[in-house]
């Protein structure tokens, strides 16, 4: 037939991005280096046209958010399955012929099960299967991309009108073809590096890990080795790789390995990793304001988990919270929290969010704060719940009991332990101290260690306060416990702790004095307080001047407060405390002497009993 009439036909206008197929499907057009560069220029032109059509920055961002990535890459990675017996794959020649016979290869669609099919096979299946199965397949496909928190407004717009992001979808699909061509030709020059960097950045903005993750691996492991890259580019791409491991794959260990391998020294990225490691939602939100949009997109993978953790922290810690702080900590507005996160809290009039209402209780008499404070001053180290950590522990052995104590706690509060455990003594080599004398009791050593731990806290220790009504409350801490801990502070050269315990003893003496004075008619309370003073006094070592001064104050306040009648009736029960009775007698004699001098009383000389 003559070919003249065919020349008058209008030539078919083909999209340059769709006219070339995937190299993995048999199209070898992109195996030519010049074709690769021409194709990359076409991609850049199409992307610039897309940005021009979008207009401003916000419109471009909305287009990326509205992107339905299934239309870009409908062949997600699936596990390898062995083909059935008798299966013969199509030959390469047939595939090439099929691709060359079609002017523009169409993007294959993905069915509900995830397998890839051509448009022809889709039409055949539609003809043979009922309409109900096709409808259910569409619904399943939609459910697979809609997050559990519900579709966003931009996603709904993309589903209703897919043409909104068609240009961007074509660009991403074309970049995949170009990457396959570069990998097939093993090209690793400056052009291929820039093409990969552009592809990685664009894929990150589209939140398509199937595109940017293998591209990052190929760029860092192979292309950067074959062709040296600029340090700033390596740090940028490695930073994306590190954030992807931490935020999307939630593998902080790998993220820190990447940071170490590529020597990433970026304070902003370090702050992000630290916020993820500690679930620090405040630092997380501050970091989002300091990084680029590419890093921000990678951080969005961890937003849902951190937001859920933040809401749980608020629900367990607060009765109410300010609305601006809640929106800042979660990164969402109040309406989105109600709709997507199913928050059931109530919003008040003054931008106060009520998390839970305070339980109503009857107003009772207020407790004395001094009583609550005194109850927590001495705590037995053996009954405390201590968190296990990596601090160096030392062993203190006394009378068959062994205490494992943090070394820095002892050395910080005691000059004795600092010299013993850090010097050239045998205890420093053994990592422990054994006490063989009878002066130390395990119970009081445990109390001493408890005070040492409390003095090692970052919160300064508050001095005890006198009780308002000591006669109305039982004795929280026996005076002897304070005295024994004070003696250990003196022995182990702990001046700051000793000063604190001495203040506690003075408060206990004052509380006991006022309780004795106010309960003159209550013989039972008088007995308990007498025994408490007697036990504390007997434990003192009068050979030490500081302890002797404590004993003098103890006797003076006791004699001024005790009921004489109660002392006369109860003194016989304290015969096992002879030292205390002797010094109380001296205290009463001192009072009589003062009375004699003040009132000018004179002693009388009496005749013997029975003498007339």
From TrEMBL:
Task: Note the InterPro entries from the entry.
Answer: BTB/POZ_dom (IPR000210), SKP1/BTB/POZ_sf (IPR011333)
Matches recorded under Pfam families:
BTB (PF00651)
Biased composition, class Low complexity, residue ranges: 89-113, 121-131
Q: Which CDD domains match?
A: BTB_POZ_ZBTB_KLHL-like (cd18186)
Question: What are the BTB domain coordinates in residue numbering?
Answer: 392-461
Where does the record place the region Disordered? 1-31, 73-131
Q: What is this protein called?
A: BTB domain-containing protein
């Amino acid at each position: 037939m003559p070919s003249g009439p065919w020349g008058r036909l209008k030539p078919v206008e083909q999209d340059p991005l769709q006219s070339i197929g995937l190299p993995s499907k048999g199209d070898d057009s992109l195996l030519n280096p010049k074709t690769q560069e021409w194709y990359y220029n076409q991609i850049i032109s199409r992307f610039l046209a897309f940005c021009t059509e979008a207009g401003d920055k916000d419109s471009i961002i909305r287009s990326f958010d509205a992107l339905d990535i299934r239309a870009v890459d409908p062949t997600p990675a699936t596990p390898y399955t062995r083909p059935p017996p008798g299966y013969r794959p199509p030959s390469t020649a047939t595939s090439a012929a099929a691709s060359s016979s079609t002017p523009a290869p169409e993007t294959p669609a993905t069915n509900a099960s995830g397998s890839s099919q051509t448009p022809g096979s889709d039409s055949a299946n539609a003809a043979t299967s009922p309409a109900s199965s096709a409808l259910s397949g569409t619904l399943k496909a939609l459910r697979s991309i809609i997050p559990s928190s519900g579709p966003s407004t931009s996603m709904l717009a993309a589903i209703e009108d897919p043409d909104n992001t068609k240009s961007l979808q074509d660009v991403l699909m074309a970049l995949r073809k170009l990457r396959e061509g570069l990998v097939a030709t093993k090209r690793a020059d400056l052009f291929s590096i820039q093409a990969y960097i552009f592809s990685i950045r664009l894929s990150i903005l589209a939140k398509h890990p199937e595109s940017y993750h293998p591209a990052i691996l190929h760029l860092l492991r192979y292309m950067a080795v074959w062709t040296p890259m600029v340090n700033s580019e390596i740090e940028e791409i490695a930073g994306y790789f590190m954030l992807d491991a931490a935020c999307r794959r939630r593998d902080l260990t790998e993220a820190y390995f990447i940071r170490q391998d590529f020597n990433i020294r970026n304070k902003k990225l370090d702050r992000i990793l630290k916020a993820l490691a500690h679930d620090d939602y405040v630092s997380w939100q501050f970091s989002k304001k300091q990084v680029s949009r590419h890093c921000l997109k990678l951080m969005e993978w961890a937003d849902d988990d951190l937001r859920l953790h933040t809401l749980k922290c608020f629900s367990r810690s607060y009765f109410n919270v300010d609305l601006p702080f809640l929106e800042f900590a979660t990164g969402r507005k109040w309406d989105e929290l109600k709709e997507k996160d199913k928050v059931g809290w109530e919003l008040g009039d003054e931008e106060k969010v009520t998390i839970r209402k305070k339980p109503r209780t009857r107003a009772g008499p207020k407790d004395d704060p001094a009583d609550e404070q005194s109850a927590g001053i001495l705590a037995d180290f053996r009954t405390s719940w201590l968190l296990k950590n990596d601090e160096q522990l030392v062993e203190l052995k006394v009378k068959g009991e062994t205490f494992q104590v943090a070394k820095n706690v002892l050395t910080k509060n005691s000059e004795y332990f600092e010299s013993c455990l850090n010097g050239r003594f045998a205890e420093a080599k053994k990592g422990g101290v054994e006490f063989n004398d009878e002066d130390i009791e395990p119970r009081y050593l445990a109390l001493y260690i408890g005070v040492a731990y409390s003095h090692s806290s970052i919160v300064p220790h508050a001095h005890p306060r006198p009780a308002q009504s000591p006669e109305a409350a039982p004795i929280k801490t026996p005076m002897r416990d304070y005295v024994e801990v004070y003696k250990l502070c003196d022995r182990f050269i702990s001046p700051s702790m000793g000063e604190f315990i001495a203040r506690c003893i003075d408060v206990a003496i004052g509380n006991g004095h006022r309780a004795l004075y106010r309960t003159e008619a209550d013989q039972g309370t008088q007995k308990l307080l007498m025994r408490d003073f007697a036990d504390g006094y007997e434990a003192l070592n009068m050979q030490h001047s500081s302890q002797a001064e404590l004993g003098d104050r103890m006797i003076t306040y006791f004699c001024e407060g005790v009921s004489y009648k109660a002392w006369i009736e109860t003194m016989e029960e304290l015969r096992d405390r002879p030292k205390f009775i002797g010094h109380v007698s001296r205290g009463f004699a001192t009072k009589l002497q003062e009375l004699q001098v003040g009132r000018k009383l004179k002693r009388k000389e009496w005749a013997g009993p029975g003498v007339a």
